[in-house]
Amino acid sequence: MSKQKRKSDCPINFALEIFGDRWTFLIVRDLMFKNKHYYGEFLGMEEKIATNILADRLILLEENGIVTRTIDEAHNSKKIYRLTKKGIDLLPLLTEAILWSAKYDKSTAADSKFIRKAKKDRVGLYAEISESLK
Amino acid sequence: MSKQKRKSDCPINFALEIFGDRWTFLIVRDLMFKNKHYYGEFLGMEEKIATNILADRLILLEENGIVTRTIDEAHNSKKIYRLTKKGIDLLPLLTEAILWSAKYDKSTAADSKFIRKAKKDRVGLYAEISESLK
Description:
- Chain A has two domains: about 10-85, Winged helix-like DNA-binding domain superfamily/Winged helix DNA-binding domain (Arc Repressor Mutant, subunit A, Orthogonal Bundle), CATH 1.10.10; about 90-134, no CATH class.
- The first copy, chain A, is mainly alpha-helical.
- The first copy, chain A, has helices at about 10-20, 20-35, 40-45, 50-65, 85-90, 90-105, 110-120, 120-130; strands at about 65-70, 80-85.
- Chain A contains eight helices and two strands, in the order ααααββαααα.
- The two termini of chain A are about 25 Å apart.
- At the A-B interface, helix 1, helix 2 and helix 6 of A face helix 1, helix 2 and helix 6 of B.
């Protein structure tokens, strides 16, 4: 995004210039809710991301300050990806996407415990997930 | 979406199978916040949507029950597009996208009155916008 001219300063468009691609968003989902941190783990997602797309989107996420990439000394110096504060701040957006889908998708796999908690105690849910990502 | 096999039942993926395309989302934005209802109005968006993409995405939105298309007798029988309840229910998701962008985009065009209201009285804001869309 930083390298090309923006199409507008609209805030919806700002988010879309990063996320207007399903794969980018699914990687953030894996980091946020599925405790995934490694390339091979993202590659294993149910939606079957292609390896070149995964590599490209991880760079995009890093360039936009949404993930950090560091070396994991504990795991053969593999690259480990983590959400930044800016990335974790996407939690309300993802939560609203989950609630909307849970409402309108008859065959949703949304976690009913998550849905209940999101409806009853949003602040507590966000605190719990943010804490788990530290 | 109804016509092709889904990649997963994940609720994030459900939303992305409809919105994992920036243009679809920008049309919903125009309907939600910019009081636009006609083909020519969407075509005039700042981000410059191509006419074939616009036509395609309007069909997608209609097929997915997010917009209705009717004949506007008051305006030379032009087609008029409106958000359905399912479409209006995307308001929290769009609002979170706006808040996130307003926080992280230094050159945001986000409306400061909207941001203030979203932070102070979310319920009131949603009621006001939903009412305006009826």
